[in-house]
Amino acid sequence: MDWGGSTAFPQRSFFELGLAVVVGLLFAALVVLSPYLPVSSDFQKLVLVAPFAFTLVILFNNLERLILFTVAVGVPLNLDISLIISPYARNLENLANGRTIVALTELRLGLIFMAVGIGYILWLVGKPGVRRHRVRLFPRTTFPALGLILVTTLSIVQAQDKQLALFIIVQMIELFLVYFYIANHLRSKADLLFFITIVMGCVLAESLLMVIQWQTGLSFSFAGINATMDAVSQRATGTLGTANSAAVIVSAFLCITCAMFWIFTRQSQKLFAGICFVVGSVALISTAGRAAWGGFIVAIFAFIIMGWWRGWVSRKALVWLLALTLAIGVIFYPVIASRLTTDDRGSALSRLMMSRLAWNVIQASPEHFFFGVGANNYALVAPLYVTSDVGDLGYIVDSSVHNVFLLVWTEMGLVGLLIYLWFLYNAVKKAVKNFISNDRYVSLMALGLGCALLAVIVQMLADPFIARPKTMLVWLLIAMVASLDNMRTIAGRQIEKRQVYRP
């Protein structure tokens, strides 16, 4: 596979080498000192980073490519560290007092953000003798993203707990910086191919772990990385914290895997994509995530219909894809039927109750309707609006409404909801625009990314998307969609050159 040829591994500058040494020493120092610092045990995840950080820099011989690699590995494997924990976090003291708040209850400084921060330094300083790549704004997705950050920041005025609001504001800024860096640094088809291939490999590893968990009940904790299995519901989570997070990640990248099967040119690559799809499908079943199943079914049918309509994929190949999907469903039908028909202990019914409660909060006052109750503060405010028509929510009264759009409305008001819808709409619109490109690579990639976004949006109707892996995935998908403009620009310039210099 060509991941960029000689252009992917330019000669290393003294600045890059010096920065790599500093980064490696910094990681090592953090690992050595972590037992003596008043921080969470999640900080021990750096133990996995230190031995490989400097080695990877030497092997890649390109810090920008290493940063892309770090993001591609970090999202599907959930490699993050927590530095500050809110008093409302799910700790033993709060559990003893019977008080847990299901919200973003921690300020995280993740490995991904640390790597991207180094990337911004490199981007700002530039390389000696190398022309700096111009900054692209991607206004259709960047402006709504900035608007979302602005309205989230302003909502702190309404917030009962300013600290909880601050957590979500910092996370939004972090997500934006990751989005903007990735969108600008996936500059070529080789870059995007490299990035997605690494992600597929990591999702395959995560899926294999989930399948093993599902069959054996395996759980472990090592260096701050936790792989748990819900012994009661028998739902696999991998290293992603919850079964729902795992389901969102796998379902989205299954859609991208479908596109990659036709983008890859070698038989070995196609075999890799096929293995990723089969193992990922089984892993998706192991999560028992009904919303994820529904999102994946909607997305895979959209892929088949649009792929056939566009003509990039033969009808026979799409029939085989549909047959394979149905075959996996038939093989695991007893498991799927059991999840859909047996008692879920009120899980599905609670979604309706949460929605009624959220509506009570929204219509309580004009301030709530237009400006919300403050970012990340819904779980604090919601118990005040429990009425008889809501029903008995029990212990989940302090939970977030399992619907992203209602949650955004309650916390940031109608203004915030409209900006959030603008953000998602423009991302989908950009995917559609690239899908109708005459460039087969760009069109198929846009189809896979667009279907992945579709699968995620369907799941947003039944999930708050508070967990970090899910929010990171949304912004990462939109960054990759935005980066397709880079491919179109390059293709356009090549066509123009051929026209100008044609003998």
The succession of helices and strands, N to C, reads HHHEHEHHHHEEEEHHHHHHHHHHH
Quickly give the structural class: mainly alpha
What is the averaged pLDDT score?
Answer: 84
User: What portion of residues belong to β-strands?
Assistant: under 5%
Low-confidence stretches: 1-12, 492-503
Task: Give the helix proportion (percent range).
Answer: 55-70%
Question: How far from one another are the termini?
Answer: 33 Å
- Placed side by side, the strands forming the largest sheet appear as 1-2
Q: How many distinct beta strands? A: 6
Shape: globular
How many helices does DSSP assign? 19
CA radius of gyration: 23 Å
Write the layout of secondary structure elements.
Elements: H1 14-33, H2 46-60, H3 63-77, E1 82-85, H4 92-96, E2 106-108, H5 111-125, H6 139-154, H7 162-185, H8 189-216, E3 220-222, E4 225-227, E5 229-230, E6 235-236, H9 243-263, H10 267-286, H11 290-310, H12 315-331, H13 333-341, H14 347-362, H15 366-371, H16 378-381, H17 404-435, H18 440-460, H19 468-500
